[in-house]
Structures are given as C-alpha cells and as structure tokens.
Specification:
Helicase, Ruva Protein, domain 3; Zinc Finger, Delta Prime, domain 3; 27 helices; five-stranded parallel β-sheet; 4 domains; 8 strands
Length: 563
C-alpha cells in the first residue's frame, strides 16, 4: 500500500473537522437545514485553509444517500465516491489547465444532463480566477440561470481577478488564515495519533513557518518526520527547514542594545557561514523587533505574540534596554536595509552596514525628556550665570523678580531665539550639545522615514524649538528652500516632526538671508559658515560645512585637494 501524506490522511471529511473556519461551516450547515442552498458558491482565501475540503464536504452533505445532512454520514456509496474523487456527479476542474472557452462550452453542454445517481450534479472549479475573459463570458448565462440540479462551487486565492459579473452571481465565503493556536492544536492531535515525539517549541516553529496554512504545517511536519523519524529534536527542525535559531536572533538584539559592532559582525559571519538566507534573517529580526515594540505598547502582549512563556520573559528583559522611539527607528532602518539587501549584488556587505548603523545609533531623547533636562540645566546654571538685578534697598543684591516672572524668563531663554545676538549659547538659549542631539536625532529619523526629504532637511538650520513650535530655516531663494515649500514635502515634514517629537507641534519653514550663515544651525561654528572663510583649507571647510558633509554621505564620496 502506497504511503499517504499527512495532508491527505488528515484532510477533514465533515464540517466539524474543518479547522478555524467555524463562521463558514456553521452558515453552510444552517443553509442545508433550512433548505436554502444557493446554486453558486465562491470560496476565497489563502492556500491550505480548507476551501477545496469544505467544497467536498458540502458536496457530500448535499448528495448523501441519507438525504440532506448538516454533516454527511461519510459511509454511504456517494460519500465514499466523493471522498476518493470517483463520483460521476461531483466534477472537480482545475481552472489553471481548463481555462479556455472550449472547456467552458463543453461544461455548458454537460450541465443539461441530469445527475447519474445523485441529487445534484456539482461542479467544483479550483483556482477559478485563471479562466480567460472569454471563458467567464461563456459561463455567465449558465451561472445566472442554471438547471435546478446544478450547483457550482468556485475556489480561488485571488478573488480580485474575478469579473464583477461573476461575483454578483455567487454567494461569497471568505476563509481566514487559521489561528496560530488552532494550528498547534491540530498538529498536537496528529503527532499524538501518529506516535511522534516532538517538543512544543518544535511544533511552534513549524506552525510559525506555515503562516496560517494548516496544509503547509502538515507538509512541513511530514518533511521533518522523514528526516528525523518519530523522535524529533528541535535541532532537527532548524536544520531541515532552514530556520534561524532563536539564540542568533537574541544575540543580534543584544549586540545592538550593547552597541557592540564587533559582535554584530560575528552574527553576520555565523548567518552567512551556515548558508541562511539573508533576507529571511532580516525578516526574522524584524519580527523580533515587532515583539519588543508590542511589549512597549501593550499591557498584555502575550496574546499578540504567540510565543512560549520563557521567550516572552526574555523579550521583556531585552525590551527594558530600549526606548520605544529607538525600537521604532531600528525597525525602519532594518526594513530599509532588507530592501537594499534584496537589490544589492553584495548582500552580505549590505547586511553588515545595516547592523553597523543599528549598533551605532545614538540614543533618541524624547522631547519631554529634553525639556526636563534643559530646565534642570537652566535652574542649575542660573545662580552662577544668571544676570542679577541692581541691588535692592537693603543692598544685598538679591534678584527679587517674582517666581512666575522668573519662570517665564527662563522659558524664553531656553526656547526663544533672539535676533542680533552673536554668541551661539545666547542665540539658542541652551548648551550646544543639547541642541545638537535634538537636530541630529530629527535628521536621522527623517532619513530613515524619507531619505530624499532627509537630504534636504540636512541643508537647513534649527532656528527655534518649543512645545508649541519648531522652526527650520533655509537659505532664501535656494533650491532646497523652494522644494521644502512644496505642499507634499511640507506635509511629510510636518508628519515626521509630529511623530519624532510625539506632539502636534507647529512646523514652520522660514527663509534665512544670504550671509546669515549658520545662525541657529546646530553645526555650531559661532555664527560663521565655511563659505564665508575662503582662506581655510578645503578639508577643514568640508568638515565644518554640513552641505558638503551631506553630499559626501549621499554619494559615498571623499574630499580631494585639487591643483
């Protein structure tokens, strides 16, 4: 006797055995019990979720020798013939290989004949979207007014390719991807009946790879059993299915959290040495970052991640090493890197560069935290650097400005840019380092979201920052200023600033007069730009001019002295 694969051996034969599609099986059973069965059905959904199996069960329920049954007996001759695909009254057609108008014309001729021995003649057309336009047109009239003994059941993974005229003549049922827990439960039943020894972690790995398709999960389990026999180790599953070991993913995140570039390179070496697909590795790390983000944003992330308890505990510890903004930024960097790896002729190098960028990321400081730090530094510096008012009548020289007035003065000193001041600290009101962190963080965040917009933003100046407004200045009448005034760019910049600052702050793009230099710019050259100092060396000017630096970054260039 030939071997029967698990996907066929464990194929559901009754409505109650269909996994994860209760909303459909219950509706069909109710329709049968009320004798309100339509003449045409359309079953849509991903592969391996039960479309064709449900079509066969429906055919058995309608043609069972015991009469219309909400669950077929599966014992009579009709049920057995449908199960084995030998019934003369249940015709299964592959839409991919019978897609022409001639095949449909033949079908139209055959529907006139009554069933050989059953109640209905049922046509099950799989992948019906593959039919040609002419074939669909030929089917229209028959589908609209079929003989009373004819029932059509169409199955497809791409319903959007089916003409609206066909869709309107069918009852549509959308099959969902099978929930993760139900895939695990089904696999547990199979390994129990088959006498297979396998860990829950192993079943979890197979279920994750199946992506909501029970048939895929059963096929993967079959493949692992063929390799390892009836005693399956976790290592066997990783080796056979080419999965990324969970420890490698954990080590990658640890290296990024510790800003350990060398360790990140060791991960790439390991992944490359063992022949893992680099894009698949990126997708697995993206999934890992998703789990960390869920832990940050959800009070009960366990139900959203479908992982073993010990893995969830490890993820919670790792999530504590990151801020939400960091994880969001890392996710976007890796997502962009995965696309670059797919297009690059040097995928390993691109993966290394992506991980280096992630491991060397400067910590992103939330705007609320920046404001707190600024306020704390301001309060600390006032006794030494704050201007004292003229001595009072008592001659003690105490500043008697009311507290609310002092607070207002402090806020203005921190956030309001006063025109005409030459000293950089007085222009910004805060130490250069804090402003530099804010500006560079926004630049990095913008480049990750929109590289082109980020390159334009790098040519601007941070002029003003407060809870109510962020103002960015560009040289008046310059190309990049005109581009930033465009509606689409303004809208994208506003959206990015709101996301980065986590506030609906007003975003202002303002012109700077030529010769103003870097007044307000966070590159901090004491109000002077490199172009105003032609006597400086080219290399030194390049280091100080952010425009040159941005050009070097975009084109991977270097400064060369000319003669």
């Amino acid at each position: 006797m030939s071997y029967l694969v698990l996907a066929r051996k464990w194929r559901p034969q009754r409505f109650g055995e269909v996994v994860g599609q209760q909303h459909i099986t219950k509706t069909l059973q109710n329709a049968i019990s009320q004798e309100r069965v339509a003449h045409a059905f359309l079953f849509t959904g991903a592969r391996g979720v039960g479309k064709t199996s449900t079509a066969r069960i429906l055919a058995k329920a309608l043609n069972c020798e015991k009469g219309l049954q909400i669950d077929p007996c599966d014992q009579c001759t009709n049920c057995q013939e449908i199960t084995h695909g030998t019934s003369m009254d249940v015709i299964e057609i592959d839409g991919a290989s019978n897609r022409g108008i001639d095949e449909i014309r033949e079908l139209r001729e055959n529907v006139r004949y009554t069933p050989a021995k059953s109640r209905y003649k049922i046509y099950i057309i799989d992948e019906v979207h593959m039919l040609t336009k002419e074939a669909f047109n030929a089917l229209l009239k028959t589908l609209e007014e079929p003989p009373p003994h004819i029932i059509f059941i169409f199955a497809t993974t791409e319903p959007h390719k089916i003409p609206a005229t066909i869709l309107s003549r069918c009852q549509r049922y959308d099959f969902k991807r099978i929930p993760f827990k139900e895939v695990i439960g089904s696999l547990n039943r199979i390994v129990g009946e088959e006498g297979i020894q396998i860990s829950q972690r192993g079943l979890l790995a197979i279920a994750q790879e199946s992506d909501g398709s029970l048939r895929d999960a059963q096929s993967l389990l079959d493949q692992v059993i063929a390799y390892a026999g009836k005693e399956i180790r976790d290592e066997d599953i990783v080796e056979v299915l080419g999965l990324i070991d969970h420890k490698i993913l954990s080590d990658t995140i640890e290296a990024i959290a510790d800003r350990d570039v060398e360790r990140s390179m060791e991960v790439v070496e390991h992944v490359y040495h063992f022949g893992y697909d680099l894009q698949h590795f990126c997708r697995q790390v993206l999934q890992y970052l998703r789990h960390l983000i869920l832990i940050k944003v959800s009070q009960h992330p366990e139900g959203l991640m479908e992982l073993p308890e010990e893995d969830v505990e490890l993820l919670k510890k790792q999530a504590g090493k990151f801020q939400f903004d960091q994880l969001n930024y890392l996710f976007n960097v890796l997502l962009k890197g995965e696309q670059e790896i797919a297009q690059s002729t040097f995928p390993r190098t691109m993966l290394e560069m992506t991980l280096i960028r992630m491991a060397t990321l400067r910590p992103l400081l939330p705007i609320d935290e920046m404001l707190k730090r600024l306020e704390a530094m301001e309060n600390k510096e006032l006794p030494k650097g704050g201007r004292e008012k003229p001595s009072s009548a008592s001659g003690k020289g105490i500043d008697e400005t009311p507290p609310k007035r002092q607070e207002k003065i402090s806020e203005e000193k921190v956030f309001k840019k006063k025109e005409g001041l030459k000293d950089e600290e007085e222009v910004s009101g805060v130490p250069p380092k804090i402003w530099e962190e804010t500006w560079n963080g926004l630049l990095d965040f913008t480049r990750a979201k929109n590289p082109i917009l980020g390159s334009f933003l790098a040519l601007g100046n941070l002029v003003h920052l407060s809870e109510e407004k962020i103002e960015i200045g560009f040289e008046k009448d310059s190309f990049h200023y005109e581009r930033m005034l465009e509606k689409e760019n303004r809208s994208q910049l506003e959206s990015i600033c709101h996301e980065y600052l986590q506030k609906k702050t007003k975003v202002v793009v303002s012109p700077l007069n030529q010769g103003t230099g870097a007044k307000g710019r966070v590159a901090f050259n004491k109000g002077e730009t490199a172009r105003n100092e032609p006597d400086k060396g080219l290399e030194r000017r390049g280091e100080e001019d952010p425009v040159i630096q941005e050009a070097l970054r975009l084109f991977n260039g270097k400064i060369v002295e000319g003669k």
